[in-house]
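Here's what a typical entry looks like (4-amino-4-deoxy-L-arabinose transferase-like glycosyltransferase):
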Amino acid sequence: MAWWGQSLLCLTFALVLFVPGTVVLRLLGARGTLALGAAPALSCAFYAAAAPVLAATGIAWGAVSVGISLLLVVLVLVAGRRLVRPAGRSAPDAPRAPVSWLGAGAVDALVAHRRWFVVAVAVGSVVAVVPMAIGMGDPAAPLQQWDAVFHLNGVAFIRETGVASTINGLYGAGNSVYYPTVWHSMVALVPGDLVTTAADAITSAANASSLVMGSVAWLVGLGAFGAACFPRRPEIAVLAVAVGGAFSMFPTVIFSTLAQWPNGLSVMLVPGAAALWVTLLRSTPDVGRSRRAVLCGTALVALVGVGSAHGSGVVGLAVVVGPLAILVAVRAVRHAWMSGRRRAVLLLGAVVLGLAVTGTSLVMQSTVMHVLFSFERLPQRGYAPSVVRTLLDTVMSAWPGNILVSVAVLVGVVVLVRSRDQRWLLVSAGTVVVLVALAAGPSTPLRALTGVWYTQAARIEALYPIVAAVLAAVGFVALGSAASRVARRRAPRGWETAGASSWAAVLVVVALVTSLGFQAPGRSGRFAEAYDPAQIRWGTMLSVEEIALMRELREIVPPGSVILGDPHNGTAFAFSMGGTHAVLPQLGTSAMDEAQTYLREHFRDIESDPEVCRYVEELGVTHFYEDEAGELDGAKVDPESPGLHDVDTSTGFSVVAVAGTATLLTIDACS
């Protein structure tokens, strides 16, 4: 597949991600950076709500049904606006088009810097996308990591069944199992078949999502967050965008090594949603009650959108904006207490405490939370090394990745320590760093606080750039101011010197160059280690020859065929790439039934064990995929699937195709 075709898929996914939320936000009165940055979160909330409704009514998930659903939402909003504000009348505080929720002055400031904001997003997107694309090599290459297998097959399931609901599971077993399917539902809307083959449609659409989420969507969200935190300092929003791609924690690690598309989507949504919450928490009386009510409702919908993408995103959002919410609440309580409304304060405090205790109790009783907090993971490193690793960004190498950016972050910390209104950002950043250290550190009771992220430090590290980008922007402005003062003192009399913003921009360019494009070689290498069969570090599932076999599977096997084989060595890609069901469609074993487990353990006894053929016939298994490559050859092999290895295929099997060390055979022994 050519990259020009992939660019069309990227554009399509961007439309899927931005259009619903942008339309809704503009109808509600939001404008500019805030509307763009928060749009993806509202889009995800829309998809999460539409999917179960369409599934319950028997309507297949697709571009037409989703488009009609969005049209209905728009009509409801338009009707609601007319009911609230009848024709010919206007509420005194009703939102007007030229005025943003940030306030008129902030809008004027952002408009003045709109050109630079667009330039920052464009350049930042190129800096982010190029290493990702180079590492992928082929735009339709399958991401060969553990989680990717499950997610690609999830997209294939939605495309096959037309069901994208979050409460039916991804493999249609009839169980009411919750799983966040928003990312899968969006990728399923991308018509990869129009620009490539059916075999590459899903993998290319998934890769397009990585390119979009890790570039323009991420950077616009950071810009919105920076603008919300500093509404009168638009240069900070621009600089936050400019350095947003400097950190390796996100998107590189999440979309390559970890292959966590839904989790990555939720992280990408956090800054835009946080911008809404910061705007709400900082709204002043002149905003007006109706506008504040709309803003509150929109912020809650954005919260739902983040949570529907992945549950951990809600906690991540709380980590980012929680300190500001607490600060605002403390100030409000103190003001009410000093105003003599002490009984109301005590009553409200009791209600909040009761709700918190009840909510926590209910959440902790859920099966999902039990699984999360009981998940065991070995310690990775001590507390001090974790803190240093995060602050200096040594995630991809032992050496600091972006020294100048790290210095700017620390300068930003020093600057904001003296800022009473912005100090909460330091608490947010500090909380992320502490949680990362707890997750990576020794097993202690406090480590349980990171259970919502499966006690995986890399998942939490992805939140760090959200606040660090803003801190770095503040730091670069401070460094630019210092450079401007020095230049003015040393400039000849009558000469004009560049301002602080110009010097800050120069420093960002210097940071980009001195870090070789914000660690571009390292980021490209990380993606190659997850995509390129010759460079994959954690076990290759499909070689180049085997990828070609999977792409030809539709033409090799009859419709309705079912393939059995070790999912670790590539069999699980048969569904997403070859359009053919696999007995074991994922690498995990938690969802296996009795038949799957028995074949996994005893299939090689097919000649002597009649139970094997019984389960083969029960599941409709027609083919066996065998790969002779082992761990010494760099292949990924499941040691807990003894029945799928060392199978005697000299009798009872017929060879269909051979690709490298892999052989596809029909199962004749049970005929």
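Residues 86-100, 102-108 have pLDDT under 50 and may be disordered.

More examples are in the samples folder.
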